[in-house]
Structure formats: structure tokens, C-alpha cells
Amino acid sequence: MREYCGETFSKLDRAGEGLSSLLFEDCLFTGCRLEGALVENCQFSGCRFEGCKITAPKFRGTQMLSCDFADCALSGVDWSALLDERKRGMGFLPFDSLRGCSLRHCVFFGLDLKGFQFAGADLSGSFFDGCKLEEASFAGSRLQGTSFAQNDLRGADFRGATEYFFSLEGNRVKNAKFSLPEAVNLLAALGVVIEDL
């Protein structure tokens, strides 16, 4: 396995290609493209990604831990596949922050995301299943078509979030914060008919 430590990669373009058997530790990636790339048997630890486009990557045997993302387009990423199964749900995450990122059609399965800041993110079409999301912030986020199933959302903040529609059944929502008019969608998900007078 080839190792890179503390290096900077600028405008690396692996769209439709691949990365194989590489270890990146504390590296900086700026303006890089991994669209449809096969990333096989690689490890990313403590890396920072800025202005990168990572779309529908295929991860095989790849792990990511404690990476930071800023102003990236991250679409179709299965974040749960980037953690060793023993670490999933135990406070370990492939990312420490996702500031200013678009996170469309991403998969978050069984992750411990307590207190995580998704505020202002576009999470359209993403899946949160079996996640610990207590005190997480989705404030001002776009959640069109986003699925929430079997999550702990106690104390989560959805104020100002738009286009969400999910069932309260199966999700723990005590003390979660919602705002009008979007909160009406939660009643509609329960089959309640709402009419204007």
C-alpha cells in the first residue's frame, strides 16, 4: 500500500477512473473530482477536502475516518460503507465536518451523529436509517425526499428546514424542534387531513 502523509493534491481528476491500495493521512484535497470513481482498498484519515466533487463513487474495502469537507458536492455517497462495521454507531465517523456541502442522495446508515451540524445543507433524497441524531441540527436544510426511519431524533432541530415529509412512527422525536408551515407535513404523514377554512 502506497502512503501519503501531509501532502496536498490539487485538481486531481479521477472521474470514471479509480484509486487503489493507497493510504492518505492528514492530506489536503482541493478542487478534486472523483465522479463515478472506483476507490478500492484505500484509507483516508484526518484528511481535508475543499471544493471537491465526489459523485456516486464506488467504495470497496475503503475506510475513511475523521475527515473534513468544505464546499464540496458529495452526491450518492454511502457514508456508512466507509466505516469498519465494528466502529459504526460507536461515535466514530468518516467525517468530522461537512461545512457548506451539498449532500444529495447520500446514505447514512447506523451512524452516531449526535449533535452533528447539517444546518443549511441540501440533503435531498438522502437516507437516515437507524442513526443516533439527538441534538443534531437540520436547521435551514433542504430535505426533499429524504428518508428518516428508526432514528433517535430527540432534541434535533428542524426549524427553517424545508420539504421534509417523514413518519413520526419508528422515530424518537421528543423535544425535536420544528417550525411552521413545514411542520404540517408531519401531520400529513400520519394521515391527518388538514383543510383551510
TrEMBL record:
InterPro entries, A to Z: 5peptide_repeat (IPR001646), Pentapeptide-BTB/POZ_domain (IPR051082)
Positions in coiled-coil regions: none
Transmembrane parts of this sequence: none
Protein's name in the database: Pentapeptide repeat-containing protein
Record-linked Gene3D superfamilies: E3 ubiquitin-protein ligase SopA
Domain of life: Bacteria
